[in-house]
Design brief:
The protein is an alpha/beta fold. The chain has 3 domains: 10-49 and 75-225, Phosphoenolpyruvate Carboxykinase, domain 1; 230-299 and 385-586, Phosphoenolpyruvate Carboxykinase, domain 3 (Alpha-Beta Complex), CATH 3.90.228.20; 301-379, Phosphoenolpyruvate Carboxykinase, domain 2 (Beta Complex). 27% of the residues lie in helices and 21% in strands. β20 (330-331) and β21 form a beta hairpin. α2 runs antiparallel to α5 (143-152). The longest helix is centred in the middle third of the chain and has 17 residues, at 209-225. The N and C termini lie far apart (69 Å). The chain binds guanosine-5'-triphosphate (GTP), sulfopyruvate and manganese (II) ion. Sulfopyruvate (SPV) binds at residues 74, 203-204, 210-211, 253, 280, 302, 434.
């Protein structure tokens, strides 16, 4: 029978019963992650109006979900880290005392599932048997959450198998309430390994395995246990000779991780291949072989839809053509999907993401700028088989990347680990639609973790510095920027598949085969060091602009870096202050 209790783990059963007494659902449904269950829930979701079944001839197994228009992105202003003291959460996180916050949230949750079903989602983050694999249980009253977690995580019996009779699973309670922004809280209680999320039904706010567990709680656990939970893609790059190199890259939300992880090299790069290990989150640890190893804790991609097309990301287009959940895209009269940047010519009529008629004359966007696909990784034509390896992959390079119209060159290499940590710690990027508010403004986003670090950011930098001591082969660290613009506001760099040219330089630097010149920022490639063959219309002048360091822009940049350091001062490692002095002197 579907939905009946499928575990004897006492801690799980007792906690579910306790939460059911609080939320008072009409029924409890224990998920098993099976295909039949998925079919049943999709049917129920369609009947309840949670999903629209898309054109099954064009998009087999695909469904559309429209979220409440007040609930379309992560909400950083209502995201809290509830550590015992405010200093533990640090100045970059919202903090509230755990007891009070829990009382408030339990008050909101009380009776909120009356007339509804409470779904019990057991899930595993990471390949079974991996030393970092972790179990979570999410309780939710949203079918959308269940079906997304089924794609994004190893959901079902495997989680109970890995947990055995232990009680060290992440507890995640999610109540939609009436999706009221005034009652929206995404709260983390790191010491108890507990997450409570109320008042939202969208993405990173409610798929608790992802940003809440794998990053906020994960980073806290990583600090205690000596590993790193990072907002990073993981890719394998294979040369024509079959040599494989693994790279992890942190770019802030909606700044290009999924695209880089699935890159298709242009025809000039015959024989080169990119394999995706992960597109959003990396869990990494110093392995006994002296390398930093990484696993992807997830099993699916919750990716940005707008801008995805045959040219920019053909692998993603194939991946999302079946068994995919779309959130907040537009649809055609025959139930196909559409979004800005899918093709040049929009169809003559559409239903927009809010369900309203839309024509090319309409002023508003047809798809929400943060519309997303949820697709299983097994749909990815370039999925790396290593993704299932409990030992992970050894990382040769770490990239920090940003979205910057000015200031930051296309690529440079940090001088060493400490300098690299400084480069990551001072990362600044233009904000995007992935979170509510501020899109376009440059803000500091240390290591792309500003919204995701579950403890004091200064202590997090110190943790990074300490990890170095346990590595015999530390990854080389780089900074990239695909988004520099010319004076007319056009991107100087073609990006997407052409990014392989930068990745190749990075690989060759790691393997001691590529040249560079010393600059105040770090090692910079010269024109002769980059393979630019076959890049149409690309002038040396353009490359000069892309690699230039403008003193005026850097004066401003240093002031912005200083603001962050002042904010973090009380916990900031002295090494980073020293790095700043060195950079100032070099400039
Ligand atoms: P999250 O899922 O929010 O963490 O985002 P992400 O970092 O995975 O970003 P993603 O790859 O989805 O890209 C976000 C947006 O940036 C999309 O609209 C892409 O089309 C665009 N983009 C990605 N790579 C490039 C690039 O190399 N150049 C340019 N110009 N745009 C890019
Ligand atoms: C991000 O914002 O970095 C995402 C999307 O990957 S969400 O899952 O909503 O956080
Ligand atoms: Mn992300």
């Amino acid at each position: 029978m579907h939905g009946t209790r499928n575990t004897n783990n006492r801690a799980v059963v007792e906690w579910v019963e306790e939460m059911a007494r609080l939320c008072k659902p009409d029924r409890i449904y224990w998920c098993d992650g099976s295909q039949e269950e998925k079919r049943e829930l999709l049917e129920r979701g369609v009947a309840d109006g949670v999903f629209i079944k898309l054109n099954q001839e064009k998009l087999p197994g695909c469904y559309l979900h429209r979220s409440n228009p007040n609930d379309v992105a992560r909400v950083e202003h209502c995201t809290y880290i509830c550590t015992d003291t405010e200093a533990e959460a640090g100045p970059t996180n919202n903090w509230a005392p755990p007891r009070e916050m829990k009382q408030r949230l339990y008050g909101l949750a009380a009776g909120s599932m009356k007339g509804r079903t409470m779904y019990v989602i057991p899930y595993l983050m990471g390949p079974p048997g991996s030393r970092l694999a972790r179990v979570g249980i999410e309780l939710t009253d949203s079918i959308y959450v269940v079906l997304n977690m089924g794609i994004m995580t190893r959901m079902g019996g495997i989680a109970y198998e890995q947990l055995g009779d232990r009680d060290d699973f992440n507890r995640g309670l999610h109540c939609m309430l009436d999706v009221d922004p005034d009652k929206r809280f995404i709260c983390h209680f790191p010491r108890e390994n507990l997450i409570i999320s109320v008042g939202s039904a969208y993405g990173g706010n409610v798929l608790l395995g992802k940003k809440c567990f794998a990053l906020r709680i994960g980073s806290y656990l990583g600090k205690q246990e000596g590993w790193l939970a990072e907002h990073m893609l993981i890719l394998g790059i294979e040369s024509p000779e079959g040599e494989k190199t693994y790279i992890a890259a942190a770019l802030p939300s909606a700044c290009g991780k999924t695209n880089l992880a699935m890159l298709v090299p242009p025809s000039r790069f015959k024989g080169w291949k990119i394999w995706t290990v992960g597109d959003d989150i990396a869990w990494m640890w110093p392995e006994t072989d002296g390398w930093l190893h990484a696993i992807n804790p997830e099993t699916g991609y919750f990716g940005v839809v707008p801008g995805t097309n045959q040219q920019s990301n053909p692998n993603a287009m194939r991946m999302i053509s079946h068994d995919t959940i779309y959130t907040n895209v537009a649809i055609t009269p025959d139930l196909d999907v559409w979004w800005e940047g899918k093709d040049k010519q929009p169809p003559p009529e559409l239903i927009d993401w809010q369900g309203r008629p839309w024509t090319p004359e309409s002023k508003e966007k047809a798809a929400h700028p943060n519309s997303r696909f949820t697709a299983p990784m097994r749909n990815n034509p370039v999925l790396a088989p290593e993704v299932e390896d409990p030992h992970g992959v050894p990382i040769s390079a770490i990239i920090f990347g940003a979205r910057r119209a000015a200031t930051m060159p296309l690529v440079f290499q940090a001088f060493d680990w400490i300098h690299g940590v400084y480069v990551g710690a001072t990362l600044g990027s233009e904000m995007t639609a992935a979170a509510v508010g501020g899109a376009g403004q440059v803000r500091r986003d240390p290591m792309a973790m500003l919204p995701f670090c579950g403890y004091n950011m200064g202590d997090y930098f110190r943790h990074w510095l300490l990890i170095r001591k346990r590595l015999k082969y530390p990854p080389a660290i780089f900074h990239v920027n695909w988004f520099r613009k010319d004076q007319h506001g056009h991107f100087l760099w073609p990006g997407f598949g052409e990014n392989i040219r930068v990745l190749k330089w990075i690989v060759d630097r790691c393997r001691g085969r590529a040249g560079a010149i010393e600059s105040p920022l770090g090692w910079l490639p010269e024109a002769k060091d980059l393979d630019l063959v076959g890049l149409k219309g690309f002038t040396e002048e353009r490359l000069d602009h892309l690699l230039s360091i403008n003193p005026e822009e850097w004066r401003r940049e240093l002031l912005l870096q200083e603001e962050l350091f002042i904010k973090l001062y009380s916990h900031l490692p002295k090494e980073l202050i020293f790095q700043r002095e060195l950079l100032l002197a070099r400039l």
